[in-house]
Structures are given as structure tokens and as C-alpha cells.
Amino acid sequence: MPIIKHEQFILASREVCFDLARNVEIHTKTTSKTKEEAVGGITQGLLRKGDTVTWEATHFGIRQKLTAKVIHMEKPTMFVDVMVKGAFNSFTHTHRFVEKNGGTIMIDIFEYKSPFGIVGIIVDKLFLERYMANFISSRAKELKRIAEDVE
User: Fold this and answer.
1) Is the pTM of this model over 0.90?
2) Distance between alpha carbon 69 and the CA centroid of its chain, in Å?
3) Domain positions in the chain
4) What Cα–Cα distance (Å) separates residue 27 from each residue in 1, 101, 122?
5) Distances from the Cα of 14 to the Cα of 30, 57, 61, angstroms
6) InterPro entries per the record (predicted)?
7) Residue 105 has what pLDDT?
8) Each residue of 62-99: pLDDT tens digit?
9) Of the CATH numbers 3.30.70.60, 3.30.530.20, 3.30.160.270, 1.10.220.30, which one belongs to the domain with range 3-150?
């Protein structure tokens, strides 16, 4: 099971970063490359524990849907969402926010399991793990830009 960890320093308060990271409209702005949009569940505002959201996005030229549920939240230090329906066998995405040097270190930990057994493992090694790491990094950099404009 691949585990992707990404850290992004943001010159903004932990509270601002936490709220932006769970804001549905901001999520769509930070994933504009994949044309991601909320099409079910919570489709606007701030996600809370127990909320589900269905995202529709284009990955690898294919329009896909994925439903995630927020299963844990400790405001403003972390929240965790898991896939309940979608292309992966499973995923858990932990979002942590640590105050440091007058700003915040936003830490994404994304653990996933690909479908299709050994074929999925090969796909991970060939390109999927790198693709997902780049996706998470790109989203974090865009969230940094937005957060630093807010502060």
C-alpha cells in the first residue's frame, strides 16, 4: 500500500489553512487542472466530521467520480477523510496542520490501495504513485498561494 507524504510551509495561521483545506469551493480551485467539482453530498462550504462529498474529476483523460467521508476532525490541527466509493480499493487522507516559524506546516499523508491486485501494484510503480504525489503537491502549492493571499 503506497503512502505519500507531502509537507508544505504556508505563511498563514493554522486556522486559516485548516479552514481552506476543508472548504469545498477552495478544493475545486486547487484542483482546476483535473476540472474537479463537487457533485454530491456537501457541495459547498466547510466539511465537518461525518460529511460526505462526491467529487467528479478528469484523471488520465477519463471523467471519474469518487465519494469521500470525513471520519475524524480535531479543529484546527487535523482531519481525516476516506474513500467510500471510487476507483481505488481504499484510501485514507490525513491532513495535519502544525504551527511553525510564524506560519503553518500543512502535512498531507495519503495512503491508498489500488484495485486489480498485482496489476494495480505494477501500475503504482510505473506511474500512479508519482501521479498522486504530484497531484497532492500541486494542490498544496495552490492552497499555499490562496492562504498567503488571505493573510
Assistant:
1) yes
2) 12
3) 3-150
4) 25, 26, 30
5) 18, 28, 35
6) START-like_dom_sf
7) 98
8) 999 999 999 999 999 999 999 999 999 999 999 999 99
9) 3.30.530.20
